[in-house]
Amino acid sequence: MPEMQHEILHLSNVSRNFGGLRALRDVSISVSKGEVLGLIGPNGAGKTTLVNTVCGVTPASAGVVTFDGRDITRVKTYQAARLGLSRTFQIVQPFAEFSALDNVAAAALFSQPGESWKSARLEARTHLAFVGLEAQADQCAATLTLAMRKRLELAKALAMKPKLLFLDEVNAGLNSIEVERATKLIHQLAARGITIVMIEHLMKVVLNVCTRIAVLHNGELIADGAPRDVIKNQAVVDAYLGQQYAQRNAARG
Ligand SMILES: Nc1ncnc2c1ncn2[C@@H]1O[C@H](COP(=O)(O)OP(=O)(O)OP(=O)(O)O)[C@@H](O)[C@H]1O
Ligand SMILES: [Mg+2]
């Protein structure tokens, strides 16, 4: 029997201004429990701003955000995190001098302040194992490769025990083998029942993992629907996909 689609996140007419710049314009979107939503659009479209707005980094200038039935429009970042909203950063930012293990343990402690350092580190090992960084547990984060730091970012996000996980370009800068590996991890997370909103420029990955796609352009939501419909949408082709394919062809020379 198909499960009922319960809404977990809802943005209602959300705008975010930076001075005179309208980075998000009247965005209304809903995310259901368990889905993997792809958030795409050109550079500067407002994708990261949407994540920052939901997570309390740059709160909405107007509109309402609800998560798990609760109004979170004005919550602080740590409150959003403790409610079950977790995210990876487009620009990875580990504590550079901490070991990989301690970076993840710190995230675990942050989400459960009462936990002991010892049990946080124990838990951190399981997250590191999941992302394939067991062997690097004691290595200083600064010495990890970009692909490893991206996976560390994922382990940190998981240590926060998210109900909803935002992935902000976890594949950017990775080679095709690393992308394949990360894609497999995302599938496994979805299988665990974690709701995922992923910002991703690689359409191959988006089409492989996303059950739905939303498209931002100049801060506006210009499409939202089934992948097969969205990629044929003329406004999406004009605003983004045409440019993507043109860029890819240009890169091929
Ligand atoms: N903290 C900020 N202060 C001022 N302007 C900002 C801030 N954050 C984002 N912007 C601006 O808002 C717009 C949307 O930026 P955002 O980072 O959300 O785009 P994006 O869709 O994530 O792009 P990309 O694909 O390049 O990561 C851009 O014009 C950006 O310069
Ligand atoms: Mg971005």
**Mean pLDDT reading:** 93
Q: C-alpha Rg, in Å?
A: 18 Å
Counting DSSP E segments of at least 2 residues, the number of strands comes to: 10
What fraction, in percent, of the residue positions are helical? 25-40%
Low-confidence stretches: none
Report the portion of residues in β strands: 15-25%
What is the oligomeric state here? single chain
Distance between the termini: 50 Å
Query: What spatial form do the alpha-carbon principal axes imply?
Result: globular
> In what order do the strands lie side by side in the largest sheet?
6-7-8-3-9-10
Identify every distinct bound molecule in the structure, by name, code or SMILES.
adenosine-5'-triphosphate, magnesium ion
Order of helices and strands: EEEHEEHEHHHEHEHEEHH
Q: Major beta sheet, specifics?
A: 6 strands, mixed
Structural class: alpha/beta
Number of helices: 9
Give the topology, please.
Blueprint: E1 7-18, E2 21-32, E3 36-40, H1 47-54, E4 62-67, E5 70-71, H2 77-83, E6 85-87, H3 100-111, H4 117-130, H5 146-159, E7 164-168, H6 176-191, E8 195-199, H7 203-209, E9 212-217, E10 220-225, H8 227-230, H9 234-252
Parallel strand pairs: 3-8, 3-9, 6-7, 7-8
Antiparallel strand pairs: 1-2, 1-4, 4-5, 9-10
Helix pairs in contact: 3-4, 3-5, 4-5
Q: Can you tell me about this structure?
A:
The chain has 253 residues and is α/β, with parallel strands linked by helices. It has a domain at 94-161. The protein contains nine helices and ten strands. It has helices spanning 47-54, 77-83, 100-111, 117-130, 146-159, 176-191, 203-209, 227-230, 234-252; strands at residues 7-18, 21-32, 36-40, 62-67, 70-71, 85-87, 164-168, 195-199, 212-217, 220-225. The strands form two sheets. It has a six-stranded mixed β-sheet, with helices on both faces. It has a four-stranded antiparallel β-sheet with strand order 2-1-4-5, with helices on one face. Helix 3 crosses helix 4 (117-130), helix 3 runs parallel beside helix 5 (146-159) and helix 4 (117-130) packs across helix 5 (146-159). The longest helix is centred in the C-terminal third of the chain and has 19 residues, at 234-252. It is globular. The protein starts with 6 loop residues before the first strand and ends with a helix.
